[in-house]
Structure prediction request, 1163 residues.
Amino acid sequence: MAHKDNSGFGRRPFVASTAGLLGAILAGARPANAQSAARRGTLVIGLDISDTLSLDPLRVFQYSNPLPTRAAYEGLVTYDPGDNITIKPALATEWAYLPDGKTVRFKLRQGVKFASGNPVTAEDVRFSFTRTLNVKDQPFQYISHVDSVNVVDEGTIDIVLKDPTLPLISIIATPAFGIQEKALVVANGGTDAPDAKEKDKATEWLNNNSAGAGPYRLTGWQRNQQIQMVRNTNYYRGAPGYDRVLIRHMSESAAQLLAIQRGDLDVAFNLIPEQLATLKGNPDIDVKGAISLDFIYMAVAEAPTNPALQNKFARQAIGHAIDFDGIIKNLAGGHAVRPVSFLPVGVNGSTEALTKEIGFNENLAKARELLAKAGMPGGFKFQLAYGNAVIAGVSYQNLAQKIQADLARVGITAELAPMDQVNLRTMFLGGKAEAVLTFWNPPAPENWLWSSATINRVAGRVQWKVPPEMRQLVADAGAERDLVKAAALYKKYQEGMVDAAHHFVLVQPVYQVAVRKSVSGLNLTAAGWMADLSAAKPI
Amino acid sequence: MIRYVISRLVTAVVMVLLATLVVFLIANTVPGDPAMAALGDMQASDPVQVREFRAKWGLDLPLWEQYWMFLQRLAQGDLGISIASRRPVLDDIIDYAPATLELATIAFLLSLVIGLPLGIIAAVRRDSWIDHSARFISLVGVSAPTFWLAFIVLAIFYGWLDWAPGPGRLDPIAFPPERITGLLLIDTALIGDWETFHDALAHLVLPSIVLAASTLGLITRTTRAAMLDALNQDYVRVARAKGLLARVVVTGHALPNAMLPVVTLGGLAYANLLTGAVMTETVFSWPGLGRYTFRSAVAVDFPAIMAITAIVAAIFVLVNFLVDMSYAMLDPRVVKK
Amino acid sequence: MSAAAILLPRIASTRRRWLRRYGLATLGGAIVLAWVLAALLAPWVLPHDPTFVNVANRLKPPSATHWFGTDALGRDVLARVVYGARVSLSVGMVVVLIGALFGTLLGAIAAYARGWAEEALMRATDLVFCFPPIILAMAIAAALGIGTVNTVIAMLVVWWPKFARLARSLVITQRSLEYVEAAQSVGYGPAHILLRQIMPNAVGPLIVLVTLDLGQAILVFAGLSFLGLGVVPPTPEWGAMVAEGRELVQQWWVATFPGLAILTVVMGFNFVGDGIRDWLDPHARTR
Prediction:
């Protein structure tokens, strides 16, 4: 029998005191944010920076770190937001190929200062490039065809190429080739000597400080937490609008959504289509679209393990059985475009109209016809591998299941094989996969980088024996400096890619970035560094 | 007695080493090649660069040699260099450990502060409605999947009611304090920055409640069972018969004896919290060891995986060792074989 | 007073007392039974196909046609939740029953044999206990590859030791008792003594652990699926469904319902297990 409670353990005071304590802790812990001057002078950006490995420019090649790198370092040339074709001057005012064909001479802008106050000199430019060439991290791969960089005089620099047919200027707009202040880098262990790969020790310092001439200066990086930058009052285009820039790591898009609604964030980069619908009609927030040059594609290999895939018509059938529009409209929320093949929409020679003309389009009758032609009217089976990731709100998992359902309509069975990134890359890069869903993001808006990749390393991954005409086509198109002629060559190249049916580009995202209306002048760009912070200022 | 202590200690060390060996072997059967994941697209396609990378990280050495190198470094306190983050694993761990330590400790204290009294009351007033509520609450805590609870709690208290702050350790615009220990509550208190202290504490509320949920359930149930056991002992009946106040009987006689199983369970529970925060840390964007462990596992980052295993195993083994020691001291029968 | 007047209040109070003691357990049993029935009858009872993709219909809130709404690919959430029960319940049963069988056998034999066999068992179980179960299961699942069978194998490795330990401690309590000595002196073989004499005395706590662990196994499997291991799509699974809906705070139904499913099933098993434990507890009978 339960006895009367005189044990002294009253539960009511206990519950009340706990609730009271919690209330006291939570109340007033959320500072009135928008009003304080410090808050107004800070641009808070929400971005998933978990893939950032370094902020030393010559080691920057991930997805998230070009943004702060571009803010801290200014290159010789750049792209204006929204224009991926015309190269604009930055620290260089003009450039030209010399008569020998393999030297490019740059005239440097005078009177530019680094964030430290020291002037930008030709020697700094030479040092930056040489350090990159000798440390040999990933960005070096894009300019491996550069032979040397030489100072001509105080205002002029030469870049000498090993192979004159390969492009250069579009590539050096990438933030990885931002100009570094030699004195500062050397003082912290940097070197441009030929053995820089072993001897350079400046990366640790450069991960927390910058030595550049960009609108903001790096002052700290806490891994997977935030990147802190402060205004560079010496910026040559005029002091930028914010005192501080904070890039907050937020891997959860739901967290970014809630944070921007509350004003904890000014900019949210990683929202997904489902959440953007919530922001429609929000009086404080604008959603801006930025067409990107990235895309999600399915690579289908002539795998030795699968005889069906060796047949070109069978592969082409795949391309005509996919509900591309449904994917873009529903899975990507309509915020995407689709190119013909490996050249994203927006670069020279690639438009959406062209996709309708020569690209893959949903046509079940044609798919069945192609299957019959391939000798497999009942369809065939193949394995589709993918990683556990979400790009621009589209998860590989959902995309794979959608494709599986689409292809089943004509009898093609896609067996899904989710795997971790390491395993996936090992299989795919090792040429052992049958089909893979993966992502391509370019280091720079230069067509040749895509086309040459497809006939070289990517061809190996899909076991494609590239015909010599294709190789010639790619080389000619890369060397052609006239934009109109190049476009025509690239059209032929894309027709060849469709015929070979190794790559099906599914989604080229138009990134939706939420920006609070209190921020003006934030220009989004597809060129690789997401946004140009130099003109941003509080209203 | 001394011999017992030494033998247990030796066993403990062997356990830790065996644990690392097991994980090393498992990790090596993973088909992925860490070189592929760590290198950029162009580098990974160049066999020469891949070979260089593998040579640099010792990935092409025979297994036993790799493990031997690991042991040698471990003996010197060097935990190796992470393939994923390119810096010493020890630095990574020092970076992420305080966040988990803080979260786990607060969660543990929370589960004690709520669970102990709840369990005691439930036992004292058995089969009453409060006993049933306590059992219900603790069972819900033990039954709810942590990852789901985290989502629900965040959606309701942050998303809908706006009572609690969002994911992360601090507000986006807060200035984090100078790092002394890495524990925000301590660092801010040491320099007297009470505003940030308040902010950090508020950010700890939701994730620690979620993390504490299952431990709370466990502690409540164990305390209740232990108290029931103690209350049924003869000495308690004698005390009651003597006419002592119920409160005195409970606190002075039954409680101390009930505490032993709870204390040992508590130790293990704390160790579990430290190492089991993966789900909570993921949903709350908490930069701690749980998330680091998961990402290292997925990236097949051998040095990180081995180091974490060694540390986790060491924690568990240490706690077990202490528990065994306390039992041995209290019950001499255990020592005799 | 009539017999009825004396007996009736006693019967009523007995029933009330039984309800108080075993009310929760009965509730738990009902919940588990409901889920099992739902899992078995799923194909005949549900109006929608759990794998039918219709992206134009995605993320619709709960309505008359879709009681739990639709997910990111337009599939009916209710159907996926019910079909998910099939996966979770079967995995839970396989892991716990096989783990219990294997572990109990090993633990009982080692405890009865004593000596180095017992020591070896203790060290082996210690080794597994060094790891948080989810980390070890994750490592093994990652090594073997994603898939239900591989995950079950990973979980089995982690699951048998606790049964071995429990069996061992139960056998230890029994092995020095007189009836065992008596049986040995009469000449019964160890197998007979173990199976026919000792184990029946020990079976109670084992059953409690099995019941409680069924819920635990479902939780761990859901957790592994949440992290991306576990089932291969498009098989519906509760943990994976919560992962899909994690970002969709506005479309709360995608993550909430599968989570509720896990919660109710595990609670059901916990209630039942607790009830069995209470029933076996000698102290309880006296009050």
Notes: Residues 3-45 of chain C form the longest helix (43 residues). Chain C has a mean pLDDT of 83.
